[in-house]
Specification:
Length: about 100
């Protein structure tokens, strides 16, 4: 699908009261993801006024790199923690 670098902006709504746990889990996920060959950027930001809201900024070389990332055991482990309210993040992809 993409012909260039893929940037994703992802909004995570965390189950109320689990923002601290999510922050720690996201730090672990970030550290592992940044080691992936197709990952160019992966960072997260926690909302100041609502600590159960996060934004992730992700840059991958292409769709294949993103697909590989989503299949990694540590990515699956993050989702398996059950931190997401509603279970699904809101993600938008942008081409560079």
């Amino acid at each position: 699908m993409s012909a260039g670098r893929l940037r994703r902006i992802v909004r995570l709504t965390i189950t109320p009261g689990r923002g601290g746990e999510a922050r720690a889990a996201l730090a672990t996920l970030r550290d592992a993801t940044l080691m992936e060959p197709g990952c160019e950027e992966f960072d997260f930001y926690q909302q100041i006024t609502d600590p159960d809201q996060f934004i992730l900024i992700e840059d991958f070389a292409d769709d294949a790199a993103l697909t590989l990332h989503m299949e990694k055991p540590y990515t699956r482990a993050f989702f398996d923690l059950g931190l997401l309210k509603g279970g699904v993040p809101i993600a938008r992809a942008w081409l560079s």
